[in-house]
Amino acid sequence: MASADDSYDLALAASTLRANGTDVQALLGALVVGLADALGDRIETVFAGGRFRKSHDIASVRIMVGDEHFEAMVDGAQLRCSVSHLSGGIRIRSETLDTDAWITRLVSSLANEAAQSESARRALEHLVIGGNQ
Predict the structure, then answer these.
(1) Would residue 133 count as lying in a domain?
(2) How far is 55 from 122, CA to CA, in rounded Å?
(3) CA–CA distance, 75 with 13 (Å, rounded to integer)
(4) What confidence tens digit (pLDDT) does each residue in 75-120 have?
(5) Number of structural domains, the chain?
(6) Which domain holds residue 44?
């Protein structure tokens, strides 16, 4: 991002997501809305419900940023978050993180990619300012 103080922008993006973290669906909804247009097929959303029952509740979100896959799955009122590192398309490492650490790492990965990628820059911008202003 072209900003005089990128660390402030990262902190703002992470705190915006954390503010929605008291409600799991609000947090995931903010992620999907904030990132869907910018990341396109690099974000996958699975909705709750079954084949015959439609639901607007999100069951899980997977976000691909570089060689990392960020996944958040709803488990009751909690999120189970993990980050997998891939090399050559093969998962070589996976770790479970708490929601705050997961958000921080996601925003940081988007910021690192934003230096070279217009779509990642737009995604991070959407999280910071809520879309094109």
Answers:
(1) no
(2) 28
(3) 24
(4) 988 889 999 998 888 889 999 999 889 988 988 888 888 777 777 7
(5) 1
(6) 6-128
